[in-house]
Automatic annotation (TrEMBL), chains A, B:
Matching Gene3D superfamilies: 3.40.50.2300, lambda repressor-like DNA-binding domains
Single GO MF descriptor: DNA binding
Record keyword Nucleotide-binding present: no
Pfam families: LacI, Peripla_BP_3
InterPro entries: HTH_LacI, LacI/GalR-like_sensor, Lambda_DNA-bd_dom_sf, Peripla_BP_I
Domain named HTH lacI-type: residues: 3-57
Disordered as annotated region, ranges: 311-339
Name the UniProt record assigns to this protein: LacI family DNA-binding transcriptional regulator
CDD domains noted in UniProt: HTH_LacI, PBP1_LacI_sugar_binding-like
Organism: Fodinicola feengrottensis
Length: 339, 339
DNA sequence: CTGAAAGCGCTTACAG
DNA sequence: CTGAAAGCGCTTACAG
């Protein structure tokens, strides 16, 4: 076992309180005492016991980040930013991978590790508004993503309807007229898909383009393989699309691959745009036009909100904030090669 | 504040010990007592205080995973596996991103969060063998990667010399004769790069091929942008290579992109192989031939080792284990399209 | 089967 | 400036 404050105190011939003062950088300690203590600290290789400190202080300096999967590039990049932002405030981050599964998300909300984490950042996929509101654990929480709005907690997300609208408008502006959507889900599916579909439909309507049901068939997930399949289906239609708006970058990268496999040229035969701005899309062939959400801002705001709740502001009404995003024009819609 | 065991005991009219027994699923509690306690637990919405429990038990159920960066696909995929493997054993995982920077790695080794984590899995890049050996914190640790061998701790990695050899041999077997390497670093650089270079040189030697210094110029990092630049430099040589072994998949994906940008065909003009088997390479155009390390096995072994140390086996000599890997033939060396 | 009590290692009023 | 002591919430021998 390691040495405790008490061991150090005994060794240095002072009280535990004095050692604690030195360890915690308390100002008013005489140089003599301080150096005695420091010597003892070093000799015994003292390490504070954080569980004891946390118990006493009533907080841990740990926050949990619950997201569907760490190996999906968008979430990996977001996690990076969250961890960095947390670090700047002295927090460390525990990761929970939910796979977007209801039971796992419930588990997170029910409070795994009660009183061990000071706060929780959750990106839910399956769990609904009601359940979120009914949660009994009262660890401060920030919600990410599009499942729940005006919810029972602070919420940070981009305006997905607007983002999808801008992506679609970009295709319209290029002169494309048969614009498909990949990533549509059943009406009871993910909120993200619903909002992005909305933005797509709005943009078509604004442009005076008809909605062709053949061009908005439903898909299963947001992964590459589905993008491949979907684009192949679309391109084998009697009247194939000349552009496709993919609800995320993985689908779009799959679509690029699918088009290649059946010999369609991107963007000549079909222009492709995604959402997320994951790194892969900056190096794919062709490079991917996409909507880039400001992930660092999302991370920063999440931590700011969490911190304010942790610091006591628990009863303020939930905040609803939209993060910035912008269109990145690249080769998949005719933009030029990255420099 | 939440209710404590004491509050619950008072409410249920029993002792703290009895409540603790119920909470911890202790067998021998009379049904009457149990239900009284359970009612009180529910009424007060009791949550155990994990800091207190950890303090008392002397362990936390938390392990830390320290790696260079979470948004590099290989590490993201590895992190996913580690988190899953940890979960199966009841551990949760804290992430430290070191960026491969010496000071950050030192900080990790010095024991951030002493006695809060039961164990540490570290993938070092900068820190050397001596420092690792001289560490004073005695939290059980497992080393990943190629920086340190026969080290002061259990170590899990693939046989990089062999892996690089097989990748290179594959190119030789295709009939390529001018095989370049991308990812080479200065002699004092990363261990990974050194070992992969070794495997490459061994394979050339076995095949009776000469080593051409022009084909093994040094690069800076293991990221896509460097792959682009390197392949362009190589292809503008008076005698360009007909194949290139990249020390990781990001470099290889960059190389694919770079070849495309200057109009070289892959694999016709230049065959490309990487190491890591990140998901992008299964969907890139062309898809990427690579060496696939068994990440789940690496994660599983890491946890197994860590667990045995945590469980008390601290003085056993450090274990050195090699994880499996295999060659995945894909389009970038002429393999067929993914089904 | 259940209770009273000690103690994990720390921080923090309270004295002096 | 420093000490003695209480207490954070839990688990665990020790009794009975």
């Amino acid at each position: 076992m390691g040495a405790s404050l008490r061991d150090v105190a005994l060794r240095a011939g002072v009280s535990v309180k004095t050692v604690s003062n030195v360890v915690n950088g308390y100002e008013h300690v005489t140089p003599t005492t301080r150096s005695k203590v420091e010597a003892a600290l070093k000799e015994l290789n003292y390490r504070p016991n954080l569980s004891a400190r946390n118990l006493r202080r009533g907080k841990s300096g740990i926050i949990a980040l619950a997201l569907p999967e760490l190996d999906s590039p968008y979430f990996a990049e977001l996690a990076r930013s969250v961890i960095r932002a947390a670090e700047e405030r002295g927090y460390t981050v525990l990761i929970d991978q939910t796979d977007g599964r209801l039971e796992r998300e419930r588990h997170v909300l029910a409070g795994i590790r009660p009183q061990l984490v000071d706060g929780l950042i959750v990106s839910p996929l399956s769990v609904g508004r009601e359940e979120l509101a009914a949660r009994t654990d009262n660890t401060p929480m920030v919600l990410l993503g599009e499942t729940v709005f005006e919810g029972p907690a602070d919420h940070v997300a981009i305006d997905n309807v607007a983002a999808a609208g801008i992506a679609t408008e970009h295709l319209v502006a290029l002169g494309r007229r048969r614009i498909a959507a990949i990533g549509v889900q059943p009406p009871d599916g993910q909120g993200t898909a619903r909002l992005r579909l909305q933005g797509y439909l709005d943009a078509l309507s604004t442009a005076g383009l008809p909605v062709d049901e053949d061009l908005i068939q439903q898909g299963a997930t947001f992964h590459r393989a589905d993008g491949i399949q979907a684009v192949k289906d679309l391109l084998s239609l009697p009247e194939p699309p000349d552009a496709v708006f993919c609800f995320n970058d993985l689908l779009a990268l799959g679509a690029i691959r699918g088009a290649y496999e059946i010999g369609a040229r991107v963007p000549d035969d079909i222009a492709i745009v995604g959402i997320d701005d994951i790194e892969d899309g900056r190096f794919s062939t062709p490079t991917l036009t996409t909507i880039s959400p400001d992930k660092e801002q999302i991370a920063r705001l999440s931590l700011e909100f969490l911190q304010s709740r942790i610091d006591g502001d628990r009863d303020a009404p939930p905040r609803e904030v939209q993060a910035d995003f912008r269109l990145m024009e690249r080769e998949s819609t005719g933009g030029r090669t990255a420099e």
